[in-house]
Structure formats: structure tokens, C-alpha cells
Design brief:
Blueprint (H helix, E strand, L loop, with lengths): L8 E6 L3 E2 L2 H18 L10 E2 L12 E2 L2 E2 H10 L5 E6 L1 H13 L6 E6 L7 H10 L9 E5 L9 H4 L9 E7 H4 L18 E5 L4 E6 L4 E3 L6 H9 L6 H11 L1 H25 L7 E4 H12 L3 E5 L12 H18 L3 H5 L3 H10 L1 H7 L1 H4 L1 H11 L21 H19 L1
Parallel strand pairs: 1-6, 1-8, 2-3, 6-7, 9-14, 10-13
Antiparallel strand pairs: 4-5, 8-12, 9-11, 10-11
Helix pairs in contact: 7-8, 9-10, 11-17
């Protein structure tokens, strides 16, 4: 195998599945939040879910952060990288925002294609294939697939220029709690992104145990990875159910299952015993040795694949829930309290362009998209129906939530302030 050495094309997904009704969506979302509250979980999530009968499409990528659509942050992140061509998959509302984005801002010579989502087939594999068809991809070329709900993931260069691209057709950038927040045990307030980590991974080379969450960034060769496993991995990636994907694939491919037997034997012989060297008591849903996991993944995929860790909380800080949206809204509010109207520039290297978009394009979008006509009122109503117990905006449209006044937001501001300054010096 000898792939191209760098990734030059990206599929940026602003598409998401929809429930048949708002009642069904709320049953799922509120049910999850109520269970997490009852169980005393660290990260409570009131999910932002779409429904077919919504008057206004509750598409999270359209939510405003500091008056700017979330999707604009994600677009800016890719423009800051060496990626040259981007396929944007999304709804008609996404297209309306994208058109004004391209009209208003300098896209740095990059080519951006819009690809309409298929409302009758919103599965991940459909999104990938629609994005792929808008790009010209060679057999030895990886593409960056990324959900568009990671607004501060602007350090993409290490992903698209990764040296392992040449020899792997899939790279899993795993979210490791200790790699991102290396002092969280002594200073819990430094862990400014609250998530539940269901996996355990032993890195034999470093002699280190990682609490792990599934990746949000996927460098992938779409000609080498079978479509069914992509969908299986996506559907089972949450709550520690990724093992189900591997077992399901193995049952369909008996020859590969035979090749998997040494991997499985090694796992059952070694993992629990070696885990106790790091932690005597632990609750988790799936554990693995990093080397053995990579070996098993490559066997089941029938192609070379690998996984690795990163130290950037922006990789895990996606916007799936109202709590996640608050994290970012509060972050920018704190930056503005410290630096005035240009606070966003201090924490995001695409901040100047984002503020220009807000000034030049948002007045027009408020006339085009119902969500933006009164975003504060719209979101207050969402909070009410989702049993949040408070409203994010007062009668004058001023933002204020309990989240805004937590030490974690100060930690997030300090981290992004340092990271953005370092990024600008490169």
C-alpha cells in the first residue's frame, strides 16, 4: 500500500438523521437526559434532534454561536488547513448559509461544492457517497470525513498531513481523556469538556491506560473500506457498543472471523489481567490493547487501519446537545468580556472572518431563515420543552446561564486563548 502522502479533499457533513415526529424525538432525547440525571452521570445531554414535522428544522449545524451559524465555524476550520476541495452535504437551509458564506468571505482559493442531503435516506453511508460523488478521488487517496459540529477544531493540519496516511486506509483519532486533560484527577476543573468515556485502551508502547471516547474525525479511503462497516461503526459508536459492529461484520465474513481468533484469544488472555495493573476496580463497556485493536480492526476491514490519540479537546467537543451549545456560547461571551467586541479573534484564528460574516450576512439570513428571525425566542422555547429548568436569554436577548459562571469556562477560555495564539505564530 502506498497512498498519497496528504489529504487534500474533505466531506463536511451538515446533515443529520430525523425522527418521524417531534413527540418521538422528545421521547428519545428526554428519556436519555432523565436517565443520565437519575444515574448521576457527569455529562448530561439534552440532545438537539430533528423531526420531520417541525415547523423550523432543528438542525444543530444552524444554531448560532455568538450570532454566527455553527456551520460557519466548521467551514472556517477546514479553510485554515491545506485541504483544497470541500464537499458540503446538507439541507436547503445549509445551502442558504453556504451561499452567503462564499459570497461574503474569501475562501482562500479553495473549491466548495454543495451537495443536497437526501431527506429519504439520511444514513451516514448515503452522506459519504453523496459527498464522494462531488469529488474526484483516486484509489490511493484518503478523504477527510468530518461532521460539521466541531466549531473550534481548527488544528486539522496534523490530521491531513499525518505520516500514517501513506500506509492506512482508515485512521481513528481516538479521544483520550488523559491525553486531553492530563491533570484532571488532581484538578477536576481543568476538564472543561464533560463527556462520558466508555472505552479503556492500554497503550503497551507508552505503558499507559487511556479512558477513551469514539472519534469524531475520520481520514478514510472510500474505495478500500466496505460501506456496511462504515454504517455499522457509526451506528454503534456511542455508549460503548462498537464491539457490536465488529461482531456483526465477523458473522457475515467467516474467513475473517477465523483470522480474528488469535486477536480475540490475546484479548481474553491479557486485557483484564493487565488492566488491574493500572486500576483495580473499573466500570467500562469495551476494553482493548491498542496494538491488538489495530490488528483486529485491520483484519475485519480487510485493509490496513490504525488508531491514535490526540491532545486537543476540540476533537471531542462536538455540539450534540444544548449543554454543548452553551459551552461554546459561554466561551465566546467570556472572551468578549475580557477583550470587547473582538473577543472571538483571541480564541479562534478564523474569528475575523466570522465576525465579518455576522455583520454582512446575518441581516439577510434573518429575513431568509425562520430560525434566525428570533433565534433567542426560538431557543428559549426549545429549552422550555426540553425541561432545562431555565432560559438561555432574557427578555432583552441577553445570554446568561449557570454554565457561564463555572470555572470550566474560564479554563476553556485560557486553553483556547493559548492555542489560538500558538496557531497564529505558525
Amino acid at each position: 500500500m502506498r497512498n498519497r502522502p496528504a489529504i487534500e479533499k474533505c466531506i463536511l457533513s451538515f446533515s443529520h438523521n430525523r425522527y418521524q415526529s417531534r413527540n418521538e424525538a422528545d421521547r428519545v432525547g428526554l428519556g436519555k437526559a432523565r436517565r443520565e440525571i437519575a444515574q448521576g452521570k457527569r455529562g448530561i445531554s439534552h440532545l438537539i434532534l430533528r423531526a420531520e414535522d417541525d415547523r423550523i428544522d432543528r438542525l444543530k449545524f444552524l444554531f448560532l454561536i455568538n450570532g454566527i451559524p455553527l456551520m460557519c465555524y466548521a467551514l472556517g476550520n477546514v479553510l485554515l488547513s491545506s485541504v483544497r476541495e470541500i464537499a458540503v452535504v446538507g439541507s436547503p437551509e445549509v445551502k442558504a448559509v453556504l451561499d452567503l458564506f462564499k459570497e461574503t468571505l474569501d475562501c482562500r482559493g479553495k473549491t466548495i461544492h454543495f451537495v443536497p442531503e437526501d431527506p429519504d435516506n439520511l444514513m451516514l453511508i448515503s452522506t459519504l457517497l453523496r459527498g464522494r460523488d462531488a469529488l474526484t478521488l483516486e484509489k490511493n487517496e484518503l478523504v477527510l470525513f468530518q461532521p460539521g459540529d466541531l466549531p473550534f477544531l481548527y488544528e486539522l493540519e496534523k490530521v491531513v498531513q499525518d505520516r500514517d496516511i501513506r500506509s492506512n486506509n482508515l485512521i481513528m483519532w481516538l479521544n483520550s481523556r488523559s491525553a486531553m486533560f492530563n491533570d484532571y484527577e488532581r484538578h477536576p476543573e481543568t476538564e472543561f469538556v464533560q463527556r462520558n468515556y466508555h472505552y479503556r485502551c492500554i497503550d503497551e508502547k507508552e505503558g499507559r491506560l487511556h479512558d477513551v471516547k469514539e472519534p469524531n474525525v475520520y481520514p478514510i479511503n472510500l474505495t478500500a473500506i466496505e460501506g456496511d462497516i462504515i454504517e455499522l461503526l457509526h451506528e454503534t459508536r456511542k455508549d460503548g457498543r462498537i464491539l457490536n459492529a465488529f461482531l456483526s461484520k465477523a458473522l457475515r465474513e467467516p474467513k475473517r472471523m477465523l483470522k480474528m481468533l488469535p486477536v480475540v484469544a490475546t484479548h481474553f488472555r491479557k486485557f483484564d489481567k493487565e488492566l488491574k495493573k493500572f486500576r483495580q476496580e473499573d466500570e467500562f463497556k469495551f476494553g482493548m490493547h491498542l496494538k491488538n485493536f489495530n490488528r483486529g480492526m485491520s483484519t475485519l476491514l480487510n485493509t490496513q487501519a490504525t488508531s491514535k490519540f490526540h491532545d486537543d479537546p476540540a476533537f471531542v467537543a462536538d455540539v450534540d446537545a444544548l449543554e454543548d451549545w452553551e459551552d461554546y456560547e459561554s466561551l465566546v461571551q467570556v472572551a468578549e468580556l475580557k477583550h470587547g467586541a473582538e473577543g472571538l479573534l483571541k480564541i479562534h484564528p478564523f474569528g475575523k472572518e466570522l465576525l465579518a460574516f455576522r455583520q454582512q450576512a446575518m441581516p439577510r439570513l434573518k429575513l431568509k431563515l425562520p430560525m434566525y428571525a428570533d433565534f433567542e425566542g426560538y431557543l428559549n422555547e426549545v429549552y422550555r420543552t426540553q425541561e432545562m429548568g431555565y432560559m438561555p436569554f432574557d427578555k432583552e436577548g441577553r445570554y446568561d446561564t449557570p454554565n457561564l459562571h463555572t470555572p470550566m469556562i474560564e479554563q476553556a477560555y485560557s486553553w483556547y486563548r493559548t492555542r489560538a495564539a500558538r496557531f497564529e505564530r505558525r
